[in-house]
TrEMBL record:
<feature type="binding site">
    <location>
        <begin position="170"/>
        <end position="173"/>
    </location>
    <ligand>
        <name>substrate</name>
    </ligand>
</feature>
<dbReference type="GO" id="GO:0005524">
    <property type="term" value="F:ATP binding"/>
</dbReference>
<dbReference type="GO" id="GO:0046104">
    <property type="term" value="P:thymidine metabolic process"/>
</dbReference>
<keyword id="KW-0067">ATP-binding</keyword>
<dbReference type="GO" id="GO:0071897">
    <property type="term" value="P:DNA biosynthetic process"/>
</dbReference>
<dbReference type="Pfam" id="PF00265">
    <property type="entry name" value="TK"/>
</dbReference>
<dbReference type="InterPro" id="IPR001267">
    <property type="entry name" value="Thymidine_kinase"/>
</dbReference>
<keyword id="KW-0547">Nucleotide-binding</keyword>
<keyword id="KW-0808">Transferase</keyword>
<comment type="similarity">
    <text>Belongs to the thymidine kinase family.</text>
</comment>
<keyword id="KW-0418">Kinase</keyword>
<feature type="active site" description="Proton acceptor">
    <location>
        <position position="87"/>
    </location>
</feature>
<dbReference type="InterPro" id="IPR027417">
    <property type="entry name" value="P-loop_NTPase"/>
</dbReference>
<dbReference type="GO" id="GO:0004797">
    <property type="term" value="F:thymidine kinase activity"/>
</dbReference>
<protein>
    <recommendedName>
        <fullName>Thymidine kinase</fullName>
        <ecNumber>2.7.1.21</ecNumber>
    </recommendedName>
</protein>
<dbReference type="GO" id="GO:0005829">
    <property type="term" value="C:cytosol"/>
</dbReference>
<keyword id="KW-0237">DNA synthesis</keyword>
Length: 243
């Protein structure tokens, strides 16, 4: 019996890696799959993992109709046993409903991967519909961590290193620890010698995974360092963790 499974978690917890591993395992057993993604950081029509794997995928657009897509492929003789659907938070509610119908009426497994909530802690519409319709929702075992050492449960967005809670829901970007280190203001704080450089022309959007406590208090790695003193060693520092 086919299933609709939603593999969810924060950013950077290994969803795309698992998506590609599952495809590999199913293919190795002679099953035939189709890969989909939407607005992957690495570009159009790919699923990319931070572990370095990258595989071609069909780009899901606003007007993609999964039902029609599957009917078309089957009519042309393509066998499809399962779908891998990455960045599923960006799919529309209607597209998630189409995926549920693909499972029920075509007996095709659908493995969907995505973050549940946005930088404001609100559910993405696609994720909400998946939680509502999936046979199973599975939170990934690999835990992304907050700078304080707790499990990261939320995604924060930073603009030029400062956490924000207002803005467009969708802005493609990455969690980049190195970006914190090379943030111009942080470099100035730590005497990084970037004072003479021009400020960046466009605001730099980044993401950081945080525990709920630090998301609600808006304390990122950078602001924790600033508040605790720039020489405080993070992460897992008990002094800084009290912030
Ligand atoms: N250099 C590395 N060495 C080992 N593991 C890494 C490395 N870089 C990233 N990872 C692992 O990859 C995970 C991110 O995988 P990815 O599939 O890209 O995440 P997601 O799709 O959930 O954003 C990290 O949580 C970490 O466990
Ligand atoms: C929190 C949040 C994230 N995004 C974007 C940023 C990335 O491009 C993807 C998540 O990709 P990952 O493989 O899970 O790291 O989502 C966004 O658009 N809006 C947000 O609020």
């Amino acid at each position: 019996m086919a299933e609709l499974v939603f593999f969810s978690g924060t950013m950077d917890c290994g969803k795309s890696t698992l998506a590609l591993q599952m495809d590999h395992n199913h293919t190795a057993r002679g099953r035939s799959g189709l890969l989909f993604s939407s607005h992957d950081r690495a570009g159009e029509s790919v699923i990319s993992s931070r572990l370095g794997l990258m595989t071609q995928a069909v780009e899901v657009r606003q007007d993609t109709d999964f039902w029609e897509e599957l009917v078309r492929r089957r009519t042309h003789g393509t066998r499809v046993d399962y779908l891998i659907c990455d960045e599923a938070q960006f799919y529309t509610r209607r597209q998630i409903e189409q995926l549920a119908r693909v499972v029920d009426d075509m007996d095709i497994d659908v493995f969907a991967f995505g973050i549940t909530s946005d930088f404001r802690t609100e559910l993405f519409p696609g994720s909400q519909r998946l939680i509502e319709l999936a046979d199973r929702t599975q939170v990934l075992q690999v835990e992304a961590l907050c700078w304080c050492g707790r499990r990261a449960t939320h995604n924060a967005r930073t603009v030029d290193g400062v956490m924000v809670v207002e803005g467009e829901q969708m802005v493609v970007g990455d969690v980049e620890p190195a970006a914190v280190e090379t943030d111009p203001r942080q470099a100035r704080l730590t005497g990084g010698g970037l004072d003479e450089l021009d400020p960046p022309a466009a605001p730099v959007i980044g993401y950081e995974t945080l525990c709920r406590r630090h998301h609600m208090r808006r304390v990122t790695t950078l602001s924790a360092r600033t508040q605790a003193g720039s020489d405080v060693a993070l992460p897992f520092d008990p002094v800084a963790a009290r912030l």
